[in-house]
Amino acid sequence: MKAPKATPEVRLPWEISADEIAAILAGSHSNPFAILGVHKSGSAYVARCFIPGAEEVTAMALDGSVIGELKQQHPEGFFAGQVSLTKQQPVRYRARRGDAEWAVTDPYSFGPVLGPMDDYYVREGSHLRLFDKMGAHWIKHEGAQGIHFAVWAPNAQRVSVVGDFNGWDGRRHVMRFRSSAGIWEIFAPDVPTGVGYKFEIRGHDGVLLPLKADPFARRSELRPKTASVVAPELLQEWEDEAHLKHWSETDKRRQPISIYEVHAGSWQRRDDGTFLSWDELAARLIPYCVDMGFTHIEFLPITEHPYDPSWGYQTTGLYAPTARFGEPEGFARFVNGCHKVGIGVILDWVPAHFPTDEHGLGWFDGTALYEHADPRQGFHPDWNTAIYNFGRTEVVSYLINNALYWAEKFHLDGLRVDAVASMLYLDYSRKHGEWIPNEYGGNENLEAVRFLQNMNTRIYAEHPGVMTIAEESTSWPKVSQPVHEGGLGFGFKWNMGFMHDTLSYMRREPIHRKHHHNELTFGLLYAYSENFVLPLSHDEVVHGKGSLIAKMPGDDWQKFANLRAYYAFMWGYPGKKLLFMGQEFAQWAEWSEAKGLDWNLLQYRMHEGMRRLVRDLNFTYRSKPALHARDCEGDGFEWLIADDNENSVFAWIRKAPGEKPVAVICNLTPVYRENYTVRLPIEGRWREILNTDADIYGGSGKGNGGRVQAVNAGGSIAASITLPPLATIMLEPEI
């Protein structure tokens, strides 16, 4: 007897197979947009939705009119049914369970937000508005308000956005894949700003990865939490037109630039030891810098980072100001406040490497996406971090867009690019066999070179008032020369040689300095090979190096005298200036990111005297074009005395066209010298405009009574000068 034939499953036109329903419920369907939402079925339209917890679902148009009752297809919350629509359009559902009722606007009933041109520019690497397209943005779309999410994960099987708005359920908002660009996107209606979110990514091998923070997140949770936060668009009313106009129209090389380097978390703290907010910092730090005469504040990285002792240099959120000091709007208000009083803001920027925290960029879609897979290229042995793949178009575009983002959205005046040397050399901190040569067999990272050139070209083209500064410690040529001349295109470069040689000299006991005279003169051989910034940075006052005052030799009086003389030496030397916080008042202790500076020291005469000196140096430097207008050009400097190693005396002239010259004279021994002859270029009276041995600075009060007389004796103009011990003086002709 034959077995009866199986009765075929009979489905209504709007019903789908049990397998497809199961895939939707598991969050594993390859294209949920083809199933969920509104679709044409014959001459009618059907709606399908997945609403966990619902027992009944009514479909409505966005205007609230009922368009159909949906039938439960699975008890876990899958519903479907015919709806009275004449075209495909967004819909909303009224879900019920017992006495509970709630509304759900269907994300799968909306069309894509990104377009073909976005895909094209992303593939080409020429999209300069990625920060407006990627990440999370509140928008109005097809009659609804909500958040558009977009993330690059080309090798993922599936990407969902999860967050407070969907119970962190990866089945609820599975994203649409734009295969031509490798981008996943979804419009999530009714989601407000301020909610936390991450991306749930299933790798190419089907393995679910740890939840990932948004690479383009503009706000993050406060550590130790790691979620991204949907940020509203900045609504800052900028009042800095005059400031931006000034810097976009001037040659920065010929402007006075004196930078105060600040770690925002430890400049000052509240009484209870917690961080100041951006508004609190603005109320204290901005007036302080105005009073001190600094032209710029340079922040150690304020982008989001999980680990305080990294000082921000291991960032997991390049687009997000850290939550430690409040919301992004607070940082925008801070920058605006600086600009209103003429102070620029520079950000330490880290495009060289990133930490391997599991919520970060590492193995983002289950592959080495942002980094190289080969550790000889993709792992940094010094910092245990991953190195960006500068040969990948999308990675380069991500970084360049980030530089543009800070300049455009936050009106930043500059980016100090960290660890450039580690980017330029393939064998940086690597032994033989631990690195891969370039295509020509060399150790130059040609991809990183192209990235830096491209980044600088884009920045200066889009924001001519912005300056880029390289922290580069090698002799790589033309770092601060234009790209069209074969350079890297930076505006300035840190002069690490100046810092190293001069501090080496100043550490020595004065009696031994005569044997190391060249440590202060050698730098002039290359002082104009780049546009230099002279950096006394945070790196010199940590990790057992001691503070600047602690490096100086001698008893306390000599330590302070040495440091005062050194500061005036530096402010009189060609190059822009940078000083790390706390060193302006000679803090004894090494810097620690875990507490505020030792401001109580200002009650003591010697520390307050140092602060006054730095203040006067800044205003002298700014008010005397001879001291700044030719910082980067050799015709602004002339040695007067370079070979008196026996007395450890140095003297030179700083000059600028059409301006009074300034003579800088340094006596770097504790010997009080009277009737010391110094050749000067102009006959007549010269006024002493600065003397680091002045009583108000904590010195002994020795000097020249405010003036010296330069006389012409046999065709040679010279002055007989009193040189205070361990001091630098500056003279200006009274003409």
Automatic annotation (TrEMBL):
Record's keyword annotation contains Metal-binding: no
SMART domains registered for this protein in UniProt: Aamy
The reaction(s) this protein catalyses: Transfers a segment of a (1->4)-alpha-D-glucan chain to a primary hydroxy group in a similar glucan chain
Molecular functions (GO terms): 1,4-alpha-glucan branching enzyme activity; cation binding; hydrolase activity, hydrolyzing O-glycosyl compounds
Homology family: Belongs to the glycosyl hydrolase 13 family. GlgB subfamily.
Function of the protein: Catalyzes the formation of the alpha-1,6-glucosidic linkages in glycogen by scission of a 1,4-alpha-linked oligosaccharide from growing alpha-1,4-glucan chains and the subsequent attachment of the oligosaccharide to the alpha-1,6 position.
UniProt name for this protein: 1,4-alpha-glucan branching enzyme GlgB
Gene from which this protein is expressed: glgB
